[in-house]
Amino acid sequence: MNHNAIIMMTLIILAVGFSLGIYVYFEQKRKQNEEIQLIITEARQGLVELDRK
User: Fold this and answer.
1) How far apart are CA 20 and CA 5, in angstroms?
2) How far from chain centre, in Å, is Cα 36?
3) Is the confidence at residue 49, as pLDDT, over 80?
């Protein structure tokens, strides 16, 4: 295997790893945002129930 092929394979592996890292990061952010939205919704419902009392 020549030198250029090894360099190209290394670059491809790095690019795939980088892309996966970015995907996982944004997926975690999205889940975190969904949880925050759920907490906000529950808090609002709690306030509405307090107002009714």
Assistant:
1) 23
2) 14
3) yes
Q: The whole model's pTM is what?
A: 0.65
Give the Cα separation of 19 and 5 in Å (integer). Answer: 21
Strand, helix or coil at 1? coil
Listed by start position, the domains of the chain span: 23-53
Chain mean pLDDT for the chain: 94
Residue 30 has pLDDT above 90, yes or no: yes
Q: Could you give the angle at the alpha carbon of 18 between the alpha carbons of 15 and 19, nearest 5°?
A: 85
> How far apart (Å, rounded) are the C-alpha atoms in residues 36 and 45?
14
